[in-house]
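Notes from the pairing session

We agreed to fold both candidates in a single pass and log them together. This is the raw record for the first candidate, unedited. Please don't reformat it; downstream parsing expects exactly this layout.

Candidate A
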Amino acid sequence: MRLSDETRAWIEKASEFPPGDNDGLLGIPPVAGEKPLADRLRAYLATAFGAEWSDALERRLVAEADEILDKKAARDGSLEAWLRDRAFRQHCALFGQRPFLWHISDGLKDGFSVFVHYHRFDQANLRKLTYTLLGDWLARAKAEGNTLRYEKGRELQQKLEKILEGEKPYDIFVRWKPLAQQPLGWDPDLDDGVRQNIRPFIKAGVLTHDLSKILKDKDRGNDVPFAPWYDVFNGERRNDHHTTLAEKRAAREAAAKRVEAAK
């Protein structure tokens, strides 16, 4: 590949970073044997800034993010507090309320909290989050006798289980796909976009920033007559629609029979 010397220098520098995360699940508290997210982020920043890195620079970076995106200084300017309380909201603002990093939490300040990388957040990783990471957290809370942490963590686990199953209203609905092609459970197609795929998590109330405004019941304009839901919605471009797992499975079976009959 024809690259400039400067580009090659940056590629070489990037190779010095600590190993990347293997699943895109980044716990803010330490879970399942992994370090807390603040410590992992510091390791990257220390490598990126080299000799310039210091506690003062860390505080300055956090303060600049607050000033630019929140227009005010925070009471707690630590990296830990920024990640826990403000990073996701600021990330949403920066990316037009279409985040590719999602912050999932049980709602407690000292409770279970994790950032997930949406582009890698497939069914296997949601299952890992629900049963491995959160399962480890629940086991520790139970062993420590921390009833509140256990109960809130268990509530979050139950909500994630509903998203995994994908029964309405925790299903993904994509209006440009026929019923037979709608996802079964948490099986997102990245090409369908953040707004379609994040809906179950907004409905379940597990995100730390309110994104409900992006869930428009319907979009402007009208669908084309050959759109799969044109007759059902009278041409409206509706998004707030739910289908059951049974309906989708029946549609898939019918579609498979039609394909078989056509052979």
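Candidate B (folded immediately after A)
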Amino acid sequence: MEPSLNSPGEKNSPPGRMAGRSLEEWNAAYGKVESYFHALRVRNKVLLGQLVIYVLKRAMRRAPQESARSATELAAEEMDRVVTDWFAAVLQESPTGSDQMLSTQGRLALLIADMPGKWQDQFLRPGPWPEEFVSAMKNAYLQAGPDFQLSKMTPRPLHLGPITVLTNFTRLPYAKMAGIWALFGIILVLIFVFTHK
């Protein structure tokens, strides 16, 4: 795997390192990217491997200039950028300004359009794409968006359930309780009076 990931300027990397980072760090980044693509239901192992390596190569190009950031961070950013740019191309949407919304709705559209089942080989592939795939993605993208509706909330009376029935039933339990406490108080006063004569 090392030769396939090394960029032309990285031929003289020290053993156990690529793009200025340890192999363990790139292995962790590989695992995160692979897990992300698994979450998008990319199950074809060959395609999955190609996509992960493509993202890691992009992250490795940035790694020497951004030494303060981890390989996993760089890979996650590149992964999101690649996926968002692909959504923008397929859906013919502008990625600027609403990247997060495009990315979120695009991922949902993938699942609604059943990309994993029908068009897994089209994922992150440059165009042109089959017309039915593009149509399914656009319909799913519109379906994935929020439906804005004007609503008016009018206050309604609170219904507290059975507790209202118990309290409105009768005031007799409170009268009994008050009578018992009054009787108890009178008994205490009588005991006090008889013991202090």
